[in-house]
Amino acid sequence: MGTFAGHALPGSFFLIFGVWWTIQIFIRYYSSIKHHIKFTSSLTFPCHCGRLKNVPLQPCLIIFFTVVGFSLEIYTGTSDGHLSEPGNAHHATMYFFFGVMAVIDLMVHFEVTLPKDVEYAIAAIAFFVEWILFEFHLYDRSQLDVLVHTLLNYVVAANVLSILVEMKYRGKILAPLFRSYMVCLQGTWFWAIGFILYNPNPNAEKWNEEDHEQLMIATIFV
User: Fold this and answer.
1) Which tens digit of pLDDT belongs to each residue from 10-33?
2) Most buried residue among 83, 117, 129, 214 by CB atoms closer than 10 A?
3) What is the pLDDT of residue 109?
4) What is the distance between the alpha carbons of residues 116 and 107, in angstroms, rounded to a whole number?
5) Is there a contact between 195 and 4 (Cβ–Cβ < 8 Å)?
6) What is the C-alpha to C-alpha distance for residues 131 and 151, in angstroms, rounded to an integer?
7) C-alpha of 43 from chain center
8) What's the CA gap between 196 and 219, in Å, rounded?
9) DSSP 204
10) Which domain holds residue 159?
């Protein structure tokens, strides 16, 4: 994941689903007002696209993204048949838990009997695992690298909090909107980190990763 593409992929993942959730939350909210029914949020939303209405599009897309991400991390981190890059192992673990979250969402879609709110519990665990992995992911790195990933970790922690809040207040629209906003923010953060640390433009001026003023600027960019 120590590349621009390695940050752009999860950044796109979080951005796409953050925007998707935001749109679906508003659709459900205004539909509930129109039909005079109680608004109730969820982690999985159906697609309102004709024939795809009954297709579990969201969990299937998440599974696709996580399989691609997991496979790339294992492939690029493997040397002589052994996983030689601990950082890649961290990222692969993150993708794995989001894949588990998607499988649970798939079971919810097909109305498999599950404990109440289990999808929220698994989603909170997935973000919590991501938070723990990034917390212990920054040893022996430059000040700039540590800073931008530490700021990212604050957002990941807020994602855990947002899911727990939503699980408690599923009838309030602000709870799921808080969750979708934090997921979008995490996506933009990944993209910003990619440009700051691994700018794909060969002519771009490189950041001084130990300069205090540039550290301050990075907090604004991210």
Assistant:
1) 899 999 999 999 999 999 999 999
2) 129
3) 85
4) 13
5) yes
6) 11
7) 13
8) 11
9) S
10) 4-221
What six digits make up the tokens of 138? 């920054």
Distance of alpha carbon 170 from alpha carbon 186, whole angstroms: 22
Q: Phi, psi (5° rounding) for residue 46?
A: -75, 160
How many other C-beta atoms lie within 10 A of the C-beta of residue 10?
24
The label of the residue with tokens 């992929």 reads 9
Q: How many residues does the chain have?
A: 222
Residues of the chain with pLDDT under 70: 1, 50, 52, 222
Task: Please give the pLDDT value at position 1.
Answer: 62
Q: Which helix (H) or strand (E) holds 55?
A: none
Position 19 scores a pLDDT of 95
The residues near 211 (Cβ < 8 Å, ≥ 6 apart) are none
On the 0-12 / 13-18 / 19+ scale of CB atoms within 10 A, 22 is middle
3-state helix, strand, coil in the chain (%, to 5): 70, 0, 25
Distance CA 80, CA 76 (A): 11
- Output the pTM of the full model: 0.89
| Total structural domains within the chain | 1
B/e letters for 49-62, b = 16+ CB within 10 Å, e = fewer, are eeeeeeebbbbebb
| Residue labelled with tokens 């530490």 | 150
> Which region holds residue 111: left if phi is over 0, alpha if psi is between -120 and 50, else beta?
left
